[in-house]
Amino acid sequence: MSVVHRLSAGWLVDHLSFINQCGYEICDSLANPGGVALRPSVTSSEYHATSTFPATSSRDGPGLGHAVGETEGKTVKTRYVFREEFFDISKPHIAAAPEQQLLQGYPEVSFAEIKASSSAEEPREGTKSGGDDSVAGARKQKRKRKCVFNQGELDALEYHTKIRKLIWEGTLHLVQEGLKSGFLHHATTELSCGKNVAPGHVDCGLAELCEMAKQFPAVNDSDHPAVHVLDDETSSPEQDLLSCVTENNSNCAKIVVLMGQKYLVPPKSSFLLSDISRLQPLLNYKKKYDVIVIDPPWENKSVKRSNRYSHLSSWQIKQIPVAALAAPDCLIVTWVTNRQKHLRFVKDELYPHWSVKTLAEWYWVKITRSGEFVLPLDSFHKKPYEVLILGRVQGSVKEAQRKSEDLLPIPDHKLIVSIPCGLHSHKPPLTAVLAEFVKPDVECLELFARNLQPGWTSWGNEVLKFQHVGYFTVLRNEN
């Protein structure tokens, strides 16, 4: 189970364990090595050409170049596991200043204290002399302006003050349970002196591929199948993977190849790789979903300054056809940054536009292996938590009917505490924590996904990003 501990405050979640329980086992018939279930053997030169990872050590098991078998006519099972180093967060990313360390020992801190602590983070004026006086004066004025909070910053500080005690106390209780059970470990000199692993990344070019797909000839919906099923007999043209929903209905994982890159598809999963302008294949899939998780690429200043990540405006996010995808009483979960502008937008504009009633706020709290916040709790620039807004589509299902189905009401102010993945925007799984609030065997959809899950349909222009074989290693091979 990905849930290690469940308390009244929320859940302590093992993200890595969840990934490795997804069934990444390739069942490869050597009598028929072609087709979608490609043999995962990759030469050393091929591997390093597509990945920035270091070579696999002996303790990780055989590398991607390990032969999977030689005897024709036999079936070989190759199991992949996600690389542990991506969750090797042994110390905070930023150490708390002495005054903030004192504050972290108290669950209740006033707005004025947090504001003063945040101001203390700003760069102090330098003591060096010399140089151009005009330049020094401009820098001095700029630093002074940094200590003046604008309204958005004041709103964020006020919001943080309201939820701070909840975050501090709930995380403390869950961390204590994790330390007792051995899932977390007390910080040692070795851990505290070491460095967090700076994980490599694979530049897959999936977003660019979606842009290229716009140049494909228009597909006649009446002539084109809505679903492409992965099997062992047929290959998968790239246009098929970009023009309809792809399903893996088998009990084994499959490998698909896009632009020469290999991606693992877990069993019982489906996906659509496209951008927001090509959502029609998902609508043609004609499924209605009981759970929809949304992780929008929110617009912000850092994203605008960088070309690394695309973003959508609030208006574009409102155009997502949730009404056409949601079943009656569908549970909607939206990941939101800590900007109050976005939180207000979801509650006051987006959910009403989708006929969704807001029910609760949950918080994902990021900790190290020893249970420390990955960032100072009262850090002004970044917080060690992110927000989820939960709501239900307003429809014909009554509260009395939900109670008769033994479904618990959605509780407010719950924590999901986990060691975060070192890969940017690899969110923790919600499957286990949502299970008690939805019926068994529900249809689940993730929008703007970057990875796949068994039992879920996933959509996004980087939906296969964290499925790249470079993020996995081979654990064992079985004849």
Describe the protein's architecture and organization.
By secondary structure, the protein is an alpha/beta fold. It has helices at about 15-20, 45-50, 100-105, 110-120, 135-145, 150-180, 190-195, 205-215, 240-245, 280-285, 300-305, 315-320, 320-325, 340-355, 400-405, 430-435; strands at about 5, 10-15, 25-30, 75-80, 225-230, 245-250, 255-260, 260-265, 270-275, 290-295, 325-335, 355-365, 385-395, 415-420, 445, 455-460, 470-479. The strands form three sheets. The chain has a twelve-stranded mixed β-sheet. A three-stranded antiparallel β-sheet has the order 3-4-17. A two-stranded antiparallel ribbon has the order 7-8. The two termini are about 30 Å apart. Residues about 30-70, about 100-105 and about 120-130 have low confidence and may be disordered.
Main β sheet profile: 12 strands, mixed
Average pLDDT figure: 77
The 3D shape can be described as globular
Tally of alpha and pi helices: 16
Strand pairing plus helix content: what structural class?
Answer: alpha/beta
Query: Roughly how many Å apart are the termini?
Result: 28 Å
What is the CA-atom radius of gyration, in angstroms?
Answer: 24 Å
How many runs of DSSP E, i.e. beta strands? 17
What percent of residues are in strands? 15-25%
- Unreliable spans are 30-71, 99-103, 122-132
Spatially, the strands of the biggest sheet line up as 1-2-14-12-13-11-10-15-16-9-6-5
Give the proportion of residues in helices.
Answer: 25-40%
